[in-house]
Amino acid sequence: MILVFFYILLEIYEVQWQSAPTLMDMLSRMYTYYNKSIFLFLIMHPTLYFAIWLMILSDYNIYALVLFLLKAADIFTKLYFIKQIFIDKKISDELKIALSTQLDKYMPYIGLLIYPPLVYMALN
C-alpha cells in the first residue's frame, strides 16, 4: 500500500504542474518545459519511471505493462500535439476548437481513478 500511496503522490504532482482550464493551455504549459529541454519535459513525468520500475519489480506483470503502456501513450500523445501545434504550427480548425474547450475541474484527476488500481494489482 505504501507504493500505491507513493504513486498517488507522484500522479498528483503531475496533475498540479499540468493543470489548466483547457487542453490548449495544458499543452502550452508543457511546451514551456519541452522548449527548455526534452529531457526536462520527460523528467517532469515521474510516473513513467515508476511504471518502468514497477514492471521490473513485478517481473513484467500484465497490470504493470498496461500501466506503462498507458503512461507512455499519454506522453507520446502530448509530444505529438506539442510538435503539431507549437513547432510545425499545423493545427486544424476542428482540433483548435476541441483543444480550446473548457475542462471540468476534475477531468485531470481521472488518472487517480485508473492508475492506482493497476499499481495495486501489479503488486499482488
From TrEMBL:
Entry's transmembrane regions: 38-56, 62-81, 106-123
Keywords: Membrane, Transmembrane, Transmembrane helix
Protein name: Uncharacterized protein
Organism the protein comes from: Sulfurimonas autotrophica (strain ATCC BAA-671 / DSM 16294 / JCM 11897 / OK10)
Organism phylogeny: Bacteria, Pseudomonadati, Campylobacterota, Epsilonproteobacteria, Campylobacterales
